[in-house]
Each structure stands twice: as C-alpha cells, then as structure tokens.
Automatic annotation (TrEMBL):
Belongs to the DEAD box helicase family. It comes from Marivirga tractuosa (strain ATCC 23168 / DSM 4126 / NBRC 15989 / NCIMB 1408 / VKM B-1430 / H-43). One of its GO terms (molecular function) is ATP binding. This is DEAD/DEAH box helicase domain protein. Residues 384-404, 422-432 have a biased composition (Basic and acidic residues). Residues 235-383 form the Helicase C-terminal domain.
Amino acid sequence: MSQDTASFQDFKLNKQLFNAIDDLGYQKPSEIQVKAIPRILNGHDVIGIAQTGTGKTAAFVLPLLMKLKYAQGHDPRALIIAPTRELVMQVYENILELGKYTDLRTVCLYGGIGPKKQAQEVAEGCDIIVATPGRLLDIYSAGVLQPKQIKTFILDEADRMMDMGFMPQIRRVLELLPMKKQNLFFSATFPEKVEKYAYEFTDFPEKVEVTPETMTAELIEQSLYHVPNFLTKINLLKYLFENEDFSRVLIFVRTRKNANNVYSFIERKISEEVRVIHANKAQSTRINAINEFKSGNVRVLVSTDVTARGIDVEEVSHVINFEVPNKYEDYVHRIGRTGRAEHHGIAISFVDPSDVYHINKIEELIQKKIKVIDLPKEIELMDTLPSEKKDMEQEIDRQKHLENPDFQGAFHEKKKKNLSGKARDKAFGNKPKDKRRKK
Ligand code: ADP
Ligand code: MG
C-alpha cells in the first residue's frame, strides 16, 4: 500500500473510529500511519520514526483505541508515557478526539498540580493512562494504581524518554508492568545509541522509518544569521518583527534565564504581547501561555526546549532559534514546530561566534547546509558584554578541546589544564566566576 493510494478504510478499524477521523477532516493517512497502523493492529512491537508534524500520535492512538474497543473492567490496559506535561495533555486531547464515539476512559497524569484529583480519577477506573513518568510513579506509590492489566506500553518522543535523565524512571515504570505486552516507541529522531536501550524493553521490534531520522521537514525554509552577541540579537529580532510577516512565532533559547531575558526585551523594546514558558514556571502559567498561543491571542511565545518536542500548534509561521541548541536533535524538533501538517514554515537561527561549532554539527546531522543571510545594514551592532564575551571564549575553548584533546586553552590554560572539557563543565557549572579561579 503506498501512501498515495492509501485510505483509512484500508485499516481494520471500526465505525466509531472512521467517524471520528471524518469529523477531524483527515482525508488520507500519512505515511507513518500507513506503515505503523497495520503492524500495531497485528500485535507487533514497533519503533516508528517520522518527521515532526506527520501524525505520529494518531499512528499509535488509532490502533490502540481499536484494540481496547470499549470501557472494560477497572484497571488500565494501556499506558502512554511522554516527557512533558504539555505533551501528555496534547496526546490526551488526541485520544478524546479520536475516541469520541467510544466510551473508553482516559486519565491524564502530570505534575505541577496536586495529585489528589488525578489519583481519584485512577481509583474510579480507566482504560488508558497518559502520563509523565514522575507523576505516574507518585500515583503508583499512593496505592491507587494497579498496573498488571497494562498490555500496551507506548513511549512518545521515545528517544527523549530513553536518555539519561528519564531512563531510571522508565526502568522503574517497566518493573511495574507485565512482562508480556506490546511496546510502541515513536519519535522524529532515534539516534543509534538510544536504539540499543530499546532492546531492554523489546526483543523483536519492527522499525518503521518514513524518512531518514535527521531529514528536516521539507516544507521548512531554513536560514541563519551570524550575530556577534545577545544585544545585537535583540536588535535583529526587533528588525525581523518590523519587516517579516510573523503571524505566529516561537522563539527558542537554551536557558531559563535567557528565556526571561528575551521575554522582557520583547515586551520593552518591541512592545509586543508575548508569553514565556520554561520548566520553572507554574503549571497553570505554562498551560495558559500555550493556550493563548494556540488560540492566537498572543503571537509570540518564548520557550526553552521543554516545549520543543511534540507540541502541535497549528500554523506557527516562524521558529526562531535565538540560541542554537547544543543537543543537536533538538534543532530538528524545534524547527518541526513549524511547517506542520503540510503548512509552509520558516526557521531562522541566530548564530553567535560560540554557536558556529554547533551549527556545523547540526548541518552534519541534517545533511544540509543552512542558508546564510547577511545581517541587514540597519541593524545596530552592539558591544559584547564582558561576561558574555568570557562565556563565549570559554565555550570556544571547550569546543577546540573536544575536537583536539591536546588543545590547551588560549587564555586560561594554567587554570584548567588538568580538567577535561566535561569535568570542567561540571566543576564550573553555575558557579560565580571569581570562584572559578580558585579551582
Ligand atoms: P507528530 O507527533 O508526528 O509530530 P502530530 O501527531 O502531533 O504529529 O500531528 C500533527 C498534526 O497533524 C495534528 O494537528 C494532527 O491532528 C494532524 N494529522 C494527523 N494525522 C493526519 C492525517 N491523516 N491527515 C491530516 N492531518 C493529520
Ligand atoms: Mg508527536
């Protein structure tokens, strides 16, 4: 079955699901849906890899709903894990839409709000749980969750779930589940080093891959500017606001601190309604910010990578990498927030001298050169702040050291000679600079 000729009717789904698909206006299945849905219905373990915005959620939700059919018993029969609260809610909403003609009961578990109501919902009985791993384990500890009937285990953004930060929790979750179950992993990127972890969960997964994992969505026009520093980036941003048609723009930064900085600069210098989200914001604030952005009330959202993955906001016209991500897969996820579901999108990256290294790595990953645009003459070039300059120099030293372990830092070699790049990062983490010297 090729995608051109494929129709949802080719899948062994039921009337309730076909009707929901019609209501959503989906005309034909996407390629990943064509490849994954029959395999999942046949009971295989599946690793599904496809570009962002290509309907991976429905690729696992439809066959799941088909298999579960209707509300049954008290204990959940399927568990879907996703990395962020926002993504959990989004998958939950997809299940509600696609399952609207079924009576299946879905419960959503995530942190940031009290666990009481969520625990009660589980206690009342459900068929599907969608959860972040931390809150799932909390609810389990509270004693209300009986996981032994869970026969389908799904990881969305699977590579993120299997990275070092989450893997310990995922292992604990797995210990609670029955040995025999169907395992489904979905993501836009699935690096080889992560794939080996997948074999902790499953022996013979079928890997279905729609495009090479690193191919960035074709509908996204990518470009970059070389910009000397933070303040000049702000000027460039202001210029773009005045000269580009930003109908809905998502601005990515690396740290919470810079998220707040960029946010307040936009408010002050560009006087644009803007929202900011990062992991330190209260849950209600995060949800409100996303909802306002989704509804079009505000057209600018500044974010760290917590939202880079999976969040489906229709018609994001521009993604701006105010800072280049140093986890290179995140570039693919970030820009994948635009150009979704066959809309055209634009991704612009601001590259400072210490980012050049990272952007080269990203180009290797996506196997594509990103178009360089000259900084418009109107943009006032600002001086680099001393602290920023120092950070950049240190970062560039670190990069040189990564490429050549014999490299001895140009400036501060005596002080850091004995530390490898990693150890140095760790040692210097967030410590104030004068403390660094004593090391
Ligand atoms: P991914 O997880 O692959 O990044 P999503 O599952 O979030 O993508 O889907 C992206 C968008 O595409 C959603 O708005 C979804 O409703 C829509 N979509 C999913 N399947 C189809 C389809 N077959 N036809 C049209 N739109 C679809
Ligand atoms: Mg997704």
